[in-house]
Recover the amino acids of this structure.
């Protein structure tokens, strides 16, 4: 990348998460700067634009078409992703699309037909978590892995749109499960063959805030998946059991334990490191070098197929093939 190149980003959906993209894009990625943002709350949007020395545009399509926006980041609620992602793809501008990439599988598959050569990064940010990166490095030492367990336990949502069925489209399967579905694919290198999922509403009145699922991968591995989004505490763990040993990792607080035979090796890896600078830098470099991103739209569609199968399984109360 030329040292004088400035990659100007526009962020659609400049709420709490969008503000993180703006902050890291402004402060932590060499060669990147925010040039525009779009936020529904006009007063808050103008205030945020002033903070990051960029323009506030009330119309997302105006931001997408703006000549001073080199790349578009979409982090609105998933029900609106399709509209803004499709519009961005039609311009040919690089796109960073938050996960889940759309509200429905049909929308995701339609986007895949439009992508062409446009550099698209899907925001599976956990791939940049230092604990996950170390686990990926250690994975071959386990030998053939036959069992993976992934757990996320989170507080109830405080976002009003996640309690509005017209806006949220789905609950914990769509909004949180998407993280662990991608981790299972990323770490194992395998694809989901089938899944048996159950879900319920504990505190969220309109969509599921707990689900449990058992999946089978195409390499023979079994995967246990759990999201609980109703507790006043947090926890994010993964376990993998291979023929040579097993690994236990806490990717919220940090720390990894690798057990091979009677020996245990511990790795003091912190998880309290921002993941957005890494994904922003990778996306920008892929765009400037006109090469594919490391997390493609196909990866996003694969997650949506798992999500869709989970909902089918819960409705039909049986295992569903993908």
């Amino acid at each position: 990348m030329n040292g004088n190149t400035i990659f100007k980003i526009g962020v659609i959906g400049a709420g709490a998460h969008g503000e993180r993209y703006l902050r890291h894009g402004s402060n932590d990625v060499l060669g990147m700067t925010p040039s525009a943002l779009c936020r529904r709350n006009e007063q808050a949007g103008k205030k945020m634009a002033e903070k990051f020395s960029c323009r506030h545009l009330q119309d997302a399509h105006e931001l997408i078409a703006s000549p001073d926006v080199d790349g578009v980041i979409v982090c609105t609620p998933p029900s609106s992703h399709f509209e803004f992602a499709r519009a961005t793809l039609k311009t040919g501008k690089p796109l960073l699309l938050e996960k889940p990439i759309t509200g429905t599988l049909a929308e995701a598959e339609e986007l895949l037909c439009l992508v062409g050569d446009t550099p698209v990064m899907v925001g599976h940010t956990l791939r940049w978590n230092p604990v996950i990166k170390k686990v990926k490095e250690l994975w071959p030492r386990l030998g053939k892995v036959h069992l993976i367990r992934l757990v996320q336990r989170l507080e109830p949502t405080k976002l009003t749109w996640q309690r509005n069925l017209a806006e949220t489209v789905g609950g914990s399967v769509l909004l949180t499960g998407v993280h662990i579905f991608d981790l299972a694919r990323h770490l194992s290198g395998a694809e989901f063959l089938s899944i048996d999922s159950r879900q319920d509403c504990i505190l969220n009145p309109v969509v599921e805030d707990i689900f449990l699922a058992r999946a089978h991968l195409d390499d023979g591995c079994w995967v246990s998946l759990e999201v609980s989004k109703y507790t006043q505490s947090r926890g994010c763990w993964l376990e993998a059991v291979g023929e040579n040993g097993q690994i236990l990792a806490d990717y919220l607080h940090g720390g990894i334990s690798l057990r091979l035979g009677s020996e245990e090796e511990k790795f003091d890896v912190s998880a309290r490191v921002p993941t957005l600078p890494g994904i922003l830098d990778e996306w920008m470099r892929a765009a400037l070098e006109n090469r594919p991103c490391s997390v493609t739209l196909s990866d996003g569609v694969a997650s949506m197929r798992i999500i869709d199968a989970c909902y089918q399984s819960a409705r039909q109360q049986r295992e569903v093939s993908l």
Notes: The mean pLDDT is 95. The CA atoms of residues 18 and 237 lie 26 Å apart. The domain at 7-125+276-295 is CATH 3.40.50.720 (Rossmann fold). The chain has two domains: 7-125+276-295, 126-273+305-321.
